[in-house]
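Shall we go through a protein fold together, starting from nothing but its sequence? Label the sequence line and the structure token line clearly, so we can match residues to local backbone shapes. Would you write everything just below, so we can both look at the same thing?
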Amino acid sequence: MNRSVGDYLDAGPGFAEGEVIERIEAFRRRRPRLRDDIVTLAHGAGGKASAALVDAVFVEAFRNPQLESLGDGAVVALPSGERLALSTDSFVVQPLRFPGGSIGHLAIHGTVNDLAMTGAIPSWISAAFVLEEGFPIDELKEIVADMADAAAGAGVAIVTGDTKVVPKGAADGLFITTAGVGAIPVGRELSAASVRPGDKVLLSGSIGDHGMAVMLARGDLELEADIHSDTAAVSELVEVLLAAAPATRWLRDPTRGGVGTVCNELARSANVGIVLDEEPLVVQPMVAGACEMLGIDPLYVANEGKFLAVVAPDEAGAALAALHAHPLGAEAAEVGEVTEQPAATVVLRTPFGGTRIVDMLVGDPLPRIC
């Protein structure tokens, strides 16, 4: 059952409304804690289990200021004063090909987009391949060709790499890991710390296309729909946005965990509220129908060619106009706003005037989507 924000304020006798709000906010600001003894698929889904694993294992071991920001990429300063962004990602999607793309497209687009979310202009990519014994060479050539096409389209060069072969049964055909580097233009600053109440939340297009395309392509479900992945490099679209709205605060591509999880990460990091409006959120009819049949909320379904942007209120109109003028931003919309309360919380406002809290993704509702 969906509950409104007001429902959570009615805590019974002995609690003032302000105290209830404070308790809710304190609870929601807590990072998830790792309670598992073994790794499960949920730890790779991008939700609460992923956050707990990253905090308890990786951040705890490697702690440093760049890592602790937990952004899409690290921003490092060179002795010259210039700043570089670095990002890395592994791709284990099954099937290797799906409507609209392949693991090769994802391997380039995913890293390019992560760099773009830091404000960097992507330039160089490294690629490492783990191949299972028996993998067809012709199929490998096709996937590598997809990577080459995607890199050319994104304006990046694949400049180094590595190849390993493991015995049959030790991998799932092919895994690809890419890392990317790009320079951040002088004066460009994007961070959750810059987000302020009153800022507007923009979404560059429809949601859920990639996750549902991959799920149906696996063939495990007796469900057919003409859904194509949205995989694309959004770096050019980001530059269009930043030219029109130079005071843009923050960017993130809603991949694993979808829009709902990414907005929760922002709300907690910036200690603000995010109020999303359901009506302007674009979900293609076939995606919406498939999600409804499978009992999946599109807000948690992965995208591979979209981004969320938080922009200054006085630049929102110009930002949307610029996005609409680009093919990848034709369906861009203002989908919400940043509020002071309820802090560290995401709320969805329905067309009927009600509200419901949007929590971080729990569990692993989708197959490996990247």
About this structure: The chain has two domains: 83-188, 192-357. The chain is about 35% helix and 20% strand. The CA atoms of residues 323 and 358 lie 26 Å apart.
